[in-house]
Amino acid sequence: MMRRLLRLHVFLCCLGLALPFCPSQCTCVSHGRTEGAGSRSVLCNDPDMSDVPVNVPVDTIKLRVEKTAVRRIPNEAFYYLVELRYLWITYNSISSVDAASFYNLKVLHELRLDGNLISVFPWESLRETPRLRTLDLHNNRLSSVPTEAIPYLLNITYLDLSSNKLTTLPSDLMDIWPPFNGQPASSNSSQKVVLGLQDNPWFCDCKISKLIELCRMTDSALVFMDLFLSCAAPDNLAGVLFQRAELENCVKPSVMTSATKITSTLNSNVLLRCDATGTPTPNLYWTTSDGSPVDNTVQESPGDGIRWSIMSLHGIEYKDAGNYSCKAKNFAGTAAATISVSIAGSASTTVPPEPGGGTAGAAQVVTSTPPTDVSNPPPILSTAPPRTSTPPTNPKKPKIPPGNGSQKGSSLKLNKNPPTGGNGKKLAADEKSRKSDPSQSVKDLRIVEEMTDSAVLLWAAGGLPNDAPLTVVFSPYDEDDTKRTIETNAGSGKVLLDGLSPGMRYSVCLVAKGTSAAKDPCIDFYTLDNVEDGGQNQFLIILTGVACVLVLPLIAFLIYKILALYCKGNSSEEDELENDSYVKFETISMKQRTLNSHPTELWGRRPTNDSERMLLCSRSSMDSQMTYKSEGSRFEYLC
Predict the structure, then answer these.
(1) Is the pLDDT of residue 542 over 90?
(2) Predicted TM-score of the model (pTM)
(3) N or C: which end of the chain has fewer CB within 10 A?
(4) Kind and range of the H or E element at 393?
């Protein structure tokens, strides 16, 4: 009997320990068990609560701590809640979150920390939550999202960062979502990502250009809570919506290579080069076909917006054959170009041109170790890229930035061993050039149907098979840095060159891959002038001629009238002066008296001669001049 009572007591004690304990400041609600998992939810909303609750039932799947005085989430605060799926710690006073706060929450699906005072969030704390899909951090004080946070956001499908102090986001963050991650935008709603970024003081520059581009997309896997995001800075874009913002100094990169396929020999050295442009200046990196990075590279930027890179393969083996991708990346986006490397038969070195040589891609020059018997030289496979008709220059060593000792392997290494027999000063490449067969190249190269923006190139296959690959290289005359290529075959006989500029001179060359022709055929041609522009110019010339015909006679008539008035004015003034200033007057003197003279004729009148005429001035009218003097007469003055 006593033994049975003891067993019953032990059973009741164990049953009491098994019953869950609910914290005094919380409310626990049990929903039973579903499929062996706990279904208990706990709500803690006591305003006097200052610490994260402990002794929460271990079968809790949802914990809510709301509107309390909790200021900090300590390390391993919920480590024993192994079944916790929903953790809401909202609208508290939390300003500090430790790096191990969410330790051991392996099945946590939803984490909400909105309405707190968090200024720095420990993104590495999400390492312990591999199944997290919802992260809500809105209405906090976050000022930045570091690049280190990106790996922990790859599986997030609901991210709310609204109502914070964010001014920018890392450009790489946009690369985890379509279309920047290389995946097409899906219309399946279950695969869409919800993103909240509104109510932040965004600084609109090239760093968030991808975000602005996402806002402009109509069909995207990214759904914005508020699509009408706007710029807060700089001043010229303040208040402008993302959809209408025009960013300055922001251009996506582009990658250029002149050769897409290179064939080299076993144990040879190959240098691959690519050039990229973009603003800001893009960075270049190489990867293999499986995506693995390549370390033996060197790159340099000769100027703003330009960068080139060289990758070296030393003593290549069969395992080195494959595709190598040169990728360029800046804040505005990414671009890539692929070069295929294959293995052939003799020792060779593939050499890029001088970095400042002005070509858009890599140029390869093949050399080999001269044999002792030059009468039977080994076969050599040329991988030279398209060349223009200008004389080639001697290849130089690529410029290697100083202080990068690990990249010295990419320097050009030419064979300096002298030959032991025959004409020792002749390289194998010279022998190949001397023995080249001119018949193994295209013939009758000509341009027809020249238009303002296109032209048609015709040729005859000559000794080449119809399926022989050809590369058409064309560019404006003496502008090798803007070369463009078109892949075709010898049997096609023609190709359309489009995208040309009107009224310009172009050079075009045909390169037959794998042939021994000494010189690639090239030809120059001109595109037609723009007809519309010519018509406008002709109309302006006619209008100018008509204006000259009408205006010039009018100008001549006006000049004639002015000169006539001027001459007439001078002559009339002289006539008036002569009429008004000169008078004819007579000299009056006493007549000599005689006995028979009449007493009334006492005075005699005599006209004055020219020498006696005087100019009378109105200003001297008070004066008098002596007009005549004779013997026996008195002086007379007349005014």
Answers:
(1) no
(2) 0.52
(3) N
(4) none
